[in-house]
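Closing statement on the carboxymethyl coenzyme *A sub-project.
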Amino acid sequence: MSDIAKIEVGGKTYEFPIVEGTENEHAINISKLRGASGGLITIDPGYKNTGSCISEVTFLDGEKGILRYRGYSIENLAEKADFLEVAYLLIFGELPNEEELNKFHDDIKKNSIVDDDIKKILDAFPKTAHPMGVLSSLTSALTAFNSSSVDVNSEEKMYNSIVKILGKFPVLVAWTMRKKQGLPLDYGDSSLGYVENLLKMMFKKPNEEYQNNPIITDALDKLLILHADHEQNCSTSTVRIVGSSHAGLFASISSGISALWGPLHGGANQAVLEMLAGIQEDGGDTEKYMAKAKDKSDPFRLMGFGHRVYKNFDPRAKIIKVAANEVLEDLGVEDPILDIARALEKEALEDDYFVARKLYPNVDFYSGIIYRAMGIPTEMFTVMFALGRLPGWIAQWREMRLNKEPIGRPRQIYTGKNLRPFVSVEKR
Ligand code: CMC
């Protein structure tokens, strides 16, 4: 491929360099376009053709169904690594050795105490509040309780903010769930692994010893790894753009949680389960819902299907489908919702509408079934996604800060009214 792209406008030709990635991807670097052309910009709603940054964190090939963190395949990491190792890999670029991993975990544990006054904020939320809204607010509130974390002008200060959020976030996740359920709030047990401790904080009953179930711990570890990063998706782009104004890490993560909440993004895992439960209640007629999904006058979409980038299969969905079968079998859970999911998947994969538009099950299609088998309430599913995505958000934020990226500030084409005189209220 040539290393120059030419754009011809109004008889003038402008030349722009082609940028090449390590996986042979190419982009036209138009950063000088506006200055060189006297005001010309590009427009790309939904950023379908726009690269917002150059990144070393995650590689994704949507056509081939490839997902790699820092060069390691998602299949390999899901099988062999644990969530904390993957978090370290994403954030710092290399898998940790034993000493590095132990230090990282110790630093996280040392920073896992959440100011007790945060409970007062939690108390003020109605029990009906959605956990994603609560989590986003509490994460933002962490800034007020840890004001020194906003200043991250050295790698050491950045590290301190990173271990603080990794330590406190699982506590906020557990508190958000327990508050809704009217259960007492606790700080967990720092002798346990990261995921085991999270589960204990979420599920320990006040009148019983907590018993770790390794099947559940391993399955959750795997789910968190599969969600840990996904390059420049909606919430990650949000984290990078908020962070580019030098708002602190916690404020940037809080905005990422809000972006993730929507049903077209992370909120899809809750939407999938509600959809499957709705189909079951309605008699289990999957063909009826397939027809609704294809009917353009009906707003219903098959949740958990389709992806902006994956146009062949979502590699995460493949792993999760197998895991869902295993977990349900290991736990001895028979869930009729799994049969509905299987039927929908089969019908969609054979249906012209879905085949022509390259719509395949995505990461969210089967994850809710596993969360449900673990006893996690449906409204908490997207919170679990947020916990999994936390290392990715941190890694992308850190990269953006270390690269000294400029503040994100897109432009627009204005199509409103031209200048007009003000008319006083009595004459309007
Ligand atoms: N059910 C029915 N039709 C669909 C679906 C669906 N789930 N997804 C896309 N389409 C159709 C859409 O109507 C359009 O048809 P046409 O070309 O006739 O107008 C075509 O497929 C292309 O869709 P699009 O909305 O232009 O595609 P997009 O890349 O902008 O959107 C998406 C991707 C994920 C938002 C979309 O597929 C969707 O809404 N899926 C359901 C929600 C979901 O599962 N989201 C989770 C995504 S994975 C988790 C994450 O990383 O966030």
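DSSP finds 18 helices and six strands in the chain. With this model delivered, the sub-project is considered complete and its resources will be redirected to Aim 3.
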